[in-house]
Every structure is written in structure tokens, then in C-alpha cells.
Here is the input.
Amino acid sequence: MLATGHLSRTLLAAAAGVILAGCASAAGSGAAAQPAAGATAPAATPSRAAATWTIATRYHIDLWLHGYAMIEDDTTRVPYFVPGYRDAMLALEKRANVSSQLMVNRDALRARLAANPQLVGGQFLPLYFDSWEGMQRGIDLFLRANGDPRRAGDRESQQVIAILAASFPTAADRDWLRLFAAGLADESTRFYRSYWDQQQRERSPVLTVLDSLWTRVYLPKLQGYLNNTQQGSGTIFVSLPLDGEGRTISGGGRSNAVAVTFPATERAATDAIYVFAHEVIGTIANQVIADNTTPAEKRTGVAAGYTSAAAVRGGTLLLARVAPELVQGYEQYYLRSARVPATDADLDAALARTFPLPAAILDGMRRQIDIVLGGI
Here is the structure.
């Protein structure tokens, strides 16, 4: 997996690429062609049939990430969630006179999250499932098996349990998951389903613009890089709660899924493409970090500390080669996301100051991008 930012990029690596039917499925190939319950398919374009990365929305991805956004303190340099998201949602719920079990149990959920920060890695789980109903079945299966794949009756169920066990290995973690999932079910019924449906209607023109830009302009420019980094096909899920840190699972070939921000306006449609570039550079950035850090730096967490900056800076290097017209907007987006003011004349320097990296890592990413693109 390629999870971004301060989240582990290998958390669910053992499960990556698994396609699970019934209870769950990988969110990669085919997901956009036949939307599951709760999905809104983008408007088709004449070039849709030729696209190897499609754009879609999924209710369960947004619901799950919404739940994390409502209970988690987001203090990362590049926010996981849209700034002000929780306050905006609380204001809407208050106006609608809604109070769900998610918020009733917020303190308990936050306490366990603080005690075990690795629970944050559970944010990637919905990318392995095709619907909220399928995810609920998978969670119920996992809890009934007490997280033990050996208690499952078939290989498919074992895979579902193994995926969930990677994020919730202990009994206390499973209790947290039980409380969180129940709270989300109540939140969905009382508030989020109607909110999400309204947002899909309001942002439908944005999705149409984004889909056209992607399939006609930017997928062709990025396709060579994607092919040569074993990311040739997959699904981009635009997600309402997300900001500059996407959520990605990568199994190589066709089993890839990337969740990115859902731009609020047609004019901002390229924001989703910026986040996609930030995500897919991870396949190079991780290896370069590994090659240019010492065992001591890996043990002490110094190497992991480079991950977020490498994704941001690497995205710039990639776009400079394949879509240079996007570089300025990309830099503006990530500086704005990091709450760093900068003038157009100072973007490069401001990005370097905000996301510092050793020269060896920057040079290594540049060389690897040259090698990848040189093979096209």
C-alpha cells in the first residue's frame, strides 16, 4: 500500500490487491463501471471506454472518513481532512437538531485513538470494500471471529478478517471498531446519508468537469508514468472529507484505488488531480527514502518523517515533467493546505522551506522519475 503522510505506507500491504466479493471487494478495476449501492457515477465522456483510471464516488468511503474527521485531531502539516470540516458538520447537525451515537461516544473513541494512534490506519479500510452494507458485513464477520482468520469457514472470509486484523489486532481495538461502526451506522441514518446525497447533486457539475479534464487531458499525460510504476489502472474516488493527504491502496497492475479531495467548485477541479499526483509518486518516494537513509534513521523514525515532504515535493517533480502547466497550481494548493502564505514569485522557495528534504532524496526522486519516463 501507499498510504500518505504520517500514516504507515505498508500497513495493509499484506492485503493489497485482494479482490473480495460479497462481503468486500478491492476498490480497483471495474468499480466505477457498475456502481454499488450508495455510489454516484460520473457523467460519461466519449473517451470513457479507453480510460484505464476512472473517477467515481462511494458513500461508504466518505462516511468512514467522516467518522474519523469527527473524532480525530488533525494536526499534520498537510491536513488529512478539509480544514474546518468537523466544525462545519457539527453546525449542520445542530441546525438539523441531530445528535448521533457517533458524537455521544466521541470521548471514548478519542481516548482509545490517543492510546493507540495506529488505529488511524483504519482510514484505509473502505478502499477494500464496495459498499457500506458490504463493509458492515465484513466488520460483523471480523468481530464474530474475534479477529482470528482461522475461525473463518472459507478463504474469502479469511481474507476479510485478515484485512481488518491489520488495523485492529487487539481486543481493545476490536471494541473500538465495534463502537465506531455502530456510531457511524447511527450517523448515517440520522444525518450523513441525506447530507451526502445533497452534496452529490450540488457537486455533479464539478464531477463532470473533473472527469473530462482527467480522461481527455491528464490521464494521457500521466499514463506512461503509471504504467511503468505498476499503477496502470484503478479508480480515483473523490471524497468529501479529504484534503491534501489522499488514501491509497496499491496491489500493482489493476488493483489500485486512490481517494482524493472532492473539489468544491468547477474552477477548483484540478485540486483532485494535484492530490492524485501527490499519491502516485509514493511508489518512487518510498524506495528513494529507503535507499538514502541509514539503518539508524529508519529505527529512530527519521526516515518515516521524510514521507510526507517527499510526497509533496515528488508530486512537483512529476508534474514538472508530464504536465508543467499544473505545477504552479499544485504548489499553491499544498502551501494553502499547509496554511503557509506565499506569492507566486516565491512558490518554489516556500515549498522547499515548508517541506524540507535532504538533497539526496530530492535528487534520487528526480533520477527515478527520469528513468521511469525514459522507459516510455
